[in-house]
Amino acid sequence: MASICVIGTGYVGLVSAVCFASLSHMVSCVDLDERKVRRINSGKPTIYEPGIEKPLAWAARKRRLVASTDYSDAMRDADFSFICVGTPSREDGSTDLSYVHKCASSIGWALAKRKKPGRHVVVMKSTVPPGTTESLEPAIRREGAKDFGLCMNPEFLREGNAMHDFMKPDRIVVGAAKQRDADAVAKLYSRINKPLLKTDLRTAEMIKYASNAFLATKISFANELANMCEKFGVDVYGVADGMGHDRRIGRGFLNAGAGFGGSCLKKDSGSLLHETRLRGFDAKILRAAMDTNDKQPYRMVELLRSLLGSLAGKRIALLGLAFKDNTDDIRDSAAIRVAKALVQEGAAVVAYDPQATANAKRELGGTIAYAPSAAKALRGADACALCTEWPIFAKIPISSFRKMKHFVVVEGRDILDKAALRKAGAKYSGIGRRGF
Ligand code: UGA
User: Fold this and answer.
1) Which ligand 1 atom sits closest to the C-alpha of 216?
2) Domain encompassing residue 254
């Protein structure tokens, strides 16, 4: 059992903290937001993440997980500190590392101040450009900290599946300058029986960027393939299944749609592009993958236009606002971009999402209307546009679709029962699919 301090209680920080507590470690969290700290200490999540409630409530009750706004308090007994703060993109695509730098100074200050003897390992979990973790050493030392090591332990957590991805990962990567620090971090995961790779710091940092850049490229390939398939009257999902059986390719992340969103794929790919360009190299494949993704949401608008003609004055039921299912997150969501494009075309949009409506309201305000259910969004609509892969959309009864003014359905995911829609007489078109 180790004592771990987690700095930052966003998606990555809170999930890591709860999972470390479940792995029998003592966890303290630091966050500057007092409201978040109070909520966590009362055992309530500050994020929407399936499966986090129970283990968090248990860990908070047992005082295995305690949150604080005070670094010296949270770091007093910690053998490890995990940096889980945000690394947002700036306008020019560069990575804003100010939170990481602030965090490093605060860790140094808290380590210098405390009485506990022995080595402390500072672990980077935030996604940072290669070279960042090692660059923190002077700042930590400047504050007076002496016996500490640095590691990079990237996260591969998908929102909505983050608890599962932490406890049952495909792999764990630990980058370190010193073998003993890598061994110490590896031991924290000893109860997780999965491949663990030890690398140097920069390799670990690059593995994270490369993984997200590859996933982004794979989705954009699938989306480009979808647009090609449409030209040949071929169903892209059948093609993806056929390709996916080849173990060299794999079926994962070949689902075509309205484009990838979320807080990571785009941000990390953009950051990698930017940092690489600064070093004199233009990563053309990655750039093309991002360009394809920027255009993809507009395919939804084009498909709607091809079925309805002008969209001005048309009422569109938009199903899904989150960037994917099982989350309330709308950051870079393709659905939000579709909504904005439809509004610009003069359409009246009525949206429904099981979780993301409150966040969408903050972004879109009154430019669109929000329905309390899929059935209510569909009622009287000229067309339905499905943008998020919520499984519950598969269960919308045909009778709800029949309450639309025109039975026109456009799909940017692969959720709806196409056979049932066809049988019921829908006019259907999907990204990468034959219409009927
Ligand atoms: C992504 C990575 O999958 C995680 O491994 C990584 O740790 C995380 O970013 C991060 O860097 O923190 P996440 O953004 O939560 O996770 O979501 P994904 O499941 O990767 O989905 C991203 C987007 O791609 C969604 O909009 C989804 O709808 C879209 N997608 C995904 C497709 O359009 N097609 C697919 O086949 C798969």
Assistant:
1) 24
2) 208-294
Q: Are residues 178 and 284 in the same domain?
A: no
Do 14 and 150 lie in a common domain?
A: yes
- 290 with 301, same domain: the answer is no
Q: Is residue 435 part of a domain?
A: no
- Are 290 and 306 in the same domain? no
Q: Of all protein residues, whose CA lies closest to atom 2 belonging to ligand 1? A: 158
CA angle 232, 235, 237 (to 5 degrees): 140
Q: Is the CB of 214 under 6 A from ligand 1?
A: no
C-alpha pair distances (Å), 384 with each of 328, 402, 413: 21, 11, 13
Q: Please give the distance, rounded to the nearest whole angstrom, from the Cα atom of residue 102 to the centre of ligand 1.
A: 28
Q: How many domains would you assign to the chain?
A: 3
Query: Which among 307, 295, 325 is positioned nearest to 393, based on CA atoms?
Result: 325
pLDDT tens sequence for the chain (436 residues): 999 999 999 999 999 999 999 999 999 999 999 999 999 999 999 998 999 999 999 999 999 999 999 999 999 999 999 999 999 999 888 899 999 999 999 999 999 999 999 999 999 999 999 999 999 999 999 999 999 999 999 999 999 999 999 999 999 999 999 999 999 999 999 999 999 999 999 999 999 999 999 999 999 999 999 999 999 999 999 999 999 999 999 999 999 999 999 989 999 999 999 999 999 999 999 999 999 999 999 999 999 999 999 999 999 999 999 999 999 999 999 999 999 999 999 999 999 999 999 999 999 999 999 999 999 999 999 999 999 999 999 999 999 999 999 999 999 999 999 999 999 999 999 999 877 8
Find, among 34, 233, 56, 201, the residue nearest to 123 by Cα: 201
CATH at residue 151: 3.40.50.720
CB distance 255 to ligand 1 below 6 Å: yes
Ligand 1 pocket, 329 CB below 6 A? no
Look up 264 and say whether it is catalytic.
Answer: yes
Bridge-based pairing of strands 427-430 and 65-68 is unpaired
Contact 113, 78 (CB under 8 A): no
Identify whether 174 is part of a domain: yes
Provide the CATH number for the domain around residue 235.
1.10.1040.10
How many CA atoms lie within 13 Å of 138's alpha carbon, on the beta-carbon side? 2
Contact 181, 188 (CB under 8 A): no
Note whether 133 and 217 are same-domain residues.
Answer: no
**Is the shortest distance between the CB of 219 and ligand 1 below 6 Å?**
yes
